[in-house]
Amino acid sequence: MSFDTVSRCGCGETRKETALINLTVSKYRNVPTIEIDQNIGWLNQVKADCDFKISRLEQLKSERRRSQAWRDDINAIARQFFDMDALHLDNDTRTGIIKQRLGCDDKRARDLAEIVGRWAKNEKRKQRDELICYAHKVGFSAIKIAEQHDISRQQVHNVLKKSKVTFIKKTRP
Q1: How far is Cα 40 from Cα 139, in angstroms, rounded to an integer?
Q2: Rounded-to-integer distance, Cα 50 and Cα 58, Å
Q3: pTM value?
Q4: Does residue 10 have a pLDDT over 70?
């Protein structure tokens, strides 16, 4: 048996290192003690490296979980102040409403108002995009739709592309 022997794990991957270690361990009967100590030291170093990498990955996973929980909490609070009828409100008005309802400080109220403002902006855009898609389905041209919404013709095409709607060229008989 040579040191190039390859073992296979259950998942089908080849592990030359594992085969080498297994072959080396089986040959230790005639190996001097100093080489055994060197191999033990090397394996301990590999183990320490693996343990360090595992702990870093677990720490990263924990940080992501904590960040997600924080975002979920902030979004839950902001969702309480999101109102479809209040899409037109400015940031200062939203901040005042949030501060009054929660009794929190200015910074916290302003942060929540910004989140609600972003949601409102996204909601306005979604409504506009739905109107653009509807107008296209009814038969309006991209130029007319662009004029109605005060956007460029290319933006109309981008909205339709994003919603997977295509323009059908009308052929004249």
Answers
A1: 77
A2: 12
A3: 0.49
A4: no
20 burial (CB, 10 Å; 0-12 / 13-18 / 19+) is middle
| Residue 158 to residue 172: CA distance in whole angstroms | 26
Which residues 6+ apart lie within 8 Å of 106 measured at CB? 95, 99
Q: What is the DSSP letter of 172?
A: P
Rg (CA), the chain: 32
Please tell me the distance from the alpha carbon of residue 173 to that of residue 40, in angstroms, as a whole number: 86
Instruction: Determine contact, residues 163/133, Cβ cutoff 8 Å.
Output: yes
pLDDT tens digits, 69-109: 988 887 777 777 777 677 677 888 888 888 888 888 889 88
Residue 43 has pLDDT above 60, yes or no: yes
Cα dist from 33 to 21, 27, 40, 105, whole Å: 16, 12, 10, 69
Of 78, 86, 85, nearest to 116 by C-alpha is 78
Instruction: Find the angle CA(166)-CA(168)-CA(173) to the nearest 5 degrees.
Output: 175
- CB of 119 closer than 8 Å to CB of 82: yes
